[in-house]
Structures are given as structure tokens and as C-alpha cells.
Amino acid sequence: MIQYNITYHTFFNPMSNISKRLQAIDALRGLVILIMMVDHVRETFYLHYQVPDPMLIPSTEESLFFSRVLAHICAPVFVVLTGLSAYLYQAKNNSIRMTREFLIKRGLFLIFLELIVINFAWTGKFPPDVIYLQVIWAIGLSMLALAALIGLPKKLLWVISLVIIFGHNLLDQISFSNVPIIHSLWLILHERGWIEFGDVIRFRTSYPVLPWISVITLGYCIGTQVFDQSVEPNKRNKILLTFGLSSLTLFFILRFINVYGDQAWSIMPTFTESLMSFFNVTKYPPSLLFILWNVGIGLILLVLLQKVETKNWIKPLIVFGSVPMFFYIVHLYVLKGLYLIAVEVFGKNYGDYYGVSSVGMLWLISLFLCIGLYPLMVKFSNFKHKNKHIPFLKYF
């Protein structure tokens, strides 16, 4: 009989009341992992149709737009759950020092993976001439930042998180292009751009980290607020639902006001185009509206998944969510291999790229990959569960 790793053993005592909620956390993580895979299939087999950020409504087909918007939920949920898990680790061990050490080690490990293992999966070049600093890098740096912050009073952590979330768009027009050293730091923190070291290597700061630091801190603060042992499950759900609905309400209010939080939206020739304009928010770096919308949906999904976490049909999501980093690395290399095979067999049918002809094909490829990778995820999840004494495995 297949044994499912349905609890996130790194952070919980399996006998505690809170540990029963881990299935929903893993299920949420698993859900967004599979949504993420669709977007990565797009970035592999739909490169002939580039999508800027934010998207250009008149030239973007509807199915591609809404697939991309759906994928926006992935990074915010990953980062919020990382902060939440940090609090749960601290609650289990009753030690800020141990939590800080874990965050530092895990953060450095993620940065290493991004620079070496993951970057090679995208570019296929070693040594690389370009290194893309993407979501795993951003999570790693955010964990280092959280490690420095967690000793502060809870109220101050809430203030820091919310001030950055609501205020960082005020920094959008600031640039330090005339001050090279500060400019490089600013590109890491808040402005997407290129950091160049002569003709040797360039870094692309795809995920400026300042807003993500606020999101991981928010996840930690939510943990302190609702995942304390003294909070009853029903009350916990009500608070999470209130947070989620409040976040969405603020999104709609600010979006209708159309003054602050992202680029303005506009009424367009058709209703669908107007709707697309309304939800066309900025990811790099994540705007206030991007964070409000996606974190709000993530928290509501967490509540809903707790209601079905014991159902058999939810177990595949739990399995995927229990081995997130292993899945992340494996699926990138599988996609790279499939792309090289496709080029070898079919040639480059769209200029410099091989690609499929429709967004529907992207979803179909993703479905087959999900089914094909699932048995491997089950085996690794079981292996991870049975070998908890191996410290290295907890990072996957």
C-alpha cells in the first residue's frame, strides 16, 4: 500500500492539533506547484509568443492572458507559506536561535540552487554567461532577511511587512543608475534589470526581493496570529478567511480608484479586454495590487482545502506539496530534455524556437507531465518520510 507523506514533518509534531492542518498546507503548495508547471511549460514551448510584464492586452490572446494571470498566484503562495512554516518551526522548537539558523542554512542553500542547478536547467550553459536571479533566489534572500527580523516584537514585524507591501510602489520612480554600486544593490532590491561584470558574466534580477521580504514576513506574522496553540481551529479559519477577504476587498477598492498600487487600467473596446486590463497587474517586482490579489486568494484556498484535506482525491496535491524543491528541480530538467528532443525530432518551427500552436496544448503537456512525474514524487516523498534523520532531505 502506498504511504503518503501527509504532514510536513520538518515543522510539526505529528501528535499536535496543528499538525493535522499540514495536509491543507501541503495541498495548497501542491496546487500552486502544478499551476506553476503550466507556466513553465509555456516558457519552454511557447517562447515564440513572448509575454511582457504587465501584458499588452490588444496583442495577447485571452487564453494565454488568463493562464498567465492564474500562474501569478504561485510565487506569493510559496513565499507566504515559507514565512508561515518558519513560525511553525519556531513554535515546535521554542527557539528563535534554531529558527534563525535554519532560515540561514535553507536560504543559502536555495541561493546556491538558483545560481548553479536551476540556472543550468533554464540556459543549458556551464559556465554561464548570464545568470537569472528568479523566484528561488528571491525566496532564499527573503529567508535570510526573515532570519534577521524574527527577534523583533510581533507588532513591529507587522508594521515592517505592511509598510513595505503598501509603500514600496512609491519607490518605483527612484533610480540610482548614476551610482553604480548603489544601482546594483537597488536592482537586487526593487528594480528589474542587469548587473554586469565586464564581458564575463551578467545577472538578470528577475525577482527584485524587497516586496518578497514583506510577503515572507507577512506569512510569519500570520503564523504568530492564527497558528498559535491557543487559537481554536474554527477561530483560526475565520481569521484566515477574514485576512483573505480583506485583502481581496482592498484590491478591488484600490483597483477601481485607479490611482495607486499598479499601472492604471482602462475601459477597452470589448468587455473581455476591459476585464483583462483590470486584472493586468505587475509581477516584477510584485505591485501592491499583485500582492493583495494573490495572497488573498491563497489564504482563502488554504481555508477551503482544510475542509477537504482528508479526501482521497486531494492526496496527489499533498504528495506534490510535500516535496516542493525536488519537484521544482526535476520538472525543469524534464522540460529541458523534452524541448531538446522536440527540436531534434521536429526542428525549429517558429524561427529560433520549437513551439506548440495553442495554449490548450500547453495545458495538455502539463497534464501528461503531472501524471508522469507523480509516481516519482510518491517514491521520493516516502523516502523523505522514512529517512528524516538525514538533514539534507528536509531542504527538498
Q: What series of H and E elements makes up the topology?
A: HHHHEHHHEEHHHHHHH
- Biggest sheet layout: 3 strands, mixed
Count of strand segments: 3
End-to-end gap:
24 Å
Percent range for β-strand residues: under 5%
* Overall pLDDT: 90
Q: How many alpha or pi helices?
A: 14
Q: Please, could you describe this protein's structure?
A:
With 396 residues, this protein is mainly alpha-helical. It has one domain. The chain is built from 14 helices and three strands. A hairpin with a 3-residue loop joins strand 2 (194-197) and strand 3. Helix 1 (22-45) packs across helix 14 (359-386). The longest helix is centred in the N-terminal third of the chain and has 28 residues, at 96-123. The chain starts with 21 loop residues before the first helix and ends in a 10-residue tail after the last helix. Residues 1-21 have low confidence and may be disordered.
What order do the helices and strands come in, and which of them pair?
Elements: H1 22-45, H2 62-71, H3 74-93, H4 96-123, E1 130-132, H5 135-149, H6 154-167, H7 180-189, E2 194-197, E3 201-204, H8 210-226, H9 233-257, H10 271-278, H11 288-306, H12 315-322, H13 324-346, H14 359-386
Parallel strand pairs: 1-3
Antiparallel strand pairs: 2-3
Looking at this protein, list some descriptive labels:
single chain; 396 residues; mainly alpha; three-stranded mixed β-sheet; 14 helices; globular; HGSNAT_cat; membrane
